[in-house]
Amino acid sequence: MDRAEKVLAEIEEQSRKNPLVIIGPKRGMILDDAILKYKPKTVVEIGTLVGYSAIRMGRLIGPGRITCLEIDEEMARVARRNISDAGLGGVIDVRVGDARELLPKLEGIFDLVFIDAKKDQYLSYLKLVEPKIKRGGVVLADNVKRFASEMQDYLEYVRDSGRYKSTYIESESSFDPDGDAVEISIRR
Ligand SMILES: C[S@@+](CC[C@H](N)C(=O)[O-])C[C@H]1O[C@@H](n2cnc3c(N)ncnc32)[C@H](O)[C@@H]1O
């Protein structure tokens, strides 16, 4: 097992004992499929926790850059350690702060944005990063079933504004027997 797979397995094991709000292996496969399908080279992740989803993306991205935004300093420290243990320190950069302050300062254009921070702020994050998403770029949002009531404005925007082609993909959840879902929205 390579270093990244080993760290992912360790985080999953830890989460079985003390549940962590990570994307997990089931919805993580949807994230993996998006990375393999769209082959992004520049990614921004909003909400990193211990680095699980960042490592999932980093192990598949090849030469590329993932910028992670995490508000909690202690979580960012744990994420950096996990990313380093996974051998992905050269690919993934973790920045500490509120994504609503960091996003306007990011330079460059992004091929993929993964949104997984505060559920009622998804639309604010998207509007801040939107000018930096390339045409045909991908926006992936987690927990769109479990927390749908908190992100109704986000879901209406990606589905009805005409700016995105948006798809809802359901999967299992370790937190909810009814499952959860990911929304994948392609910038027109
Ligand atoms: C669901 S967890 C992220 C899980 C991670 N994406 C994964 O699947 O491994 C949400 C994270 O977003 C962070 N967060 C919440 N509000 C934020 C904000 N405004 N800016 C940046 N990070 C934020 C929290 O501290 C938490 O670590």
Please, could you describe this protein's structure?
The chain has 188 residues and is an alpha/beta fold. It has one domain: Rossmann fold (3-Layer(aba) Sandwich), CATH 3.40.50. Helices cover 39% and strands 25% of the residues. It is built from seven helices and seven strands. The chain has helices at residues 3-17, 24-38, 52-61, 73-85, 99-102, 122-129, 152-160, and strands at 42-46, 65-70, 92-96, 110-115, 133-141, 164-171, 180-187. It has a seven-stranded mixed beta sheet with strand order 3-2-1-4-5-7-6, with helices on both faces. The protein starts with a helix and ends with a strand. The model has no long low-confidence stretch (mean pLDDT 97).
**Content-based structural category:** alpha/beta
Quickly name the level 1 CATH class: Alpha Beta
- Strand runs, count: 7
Main sheet makeup: 7 strands, mixed
Q: What is the beta-strand fraction?
A: 25-35%
Overall, the morphology is globular
Number of alpha- plus pi-helical segments: 7
> Overall pLDDT, averaged?
97
Query: How are strands sequenced across the largest beta sheet?
Result: 3-2-1-4-5-7-6
CATH architecture assignment name: 3-Layer(aba) Sandwich
Helix content: 25-40%
**Uncertain runs with pLDDT below 50, 5 residues or more?**
none
- The gyration radius over C-alpha positions equals 15 Å
Q: Could you give the distance between the termini?
A: 39 Å
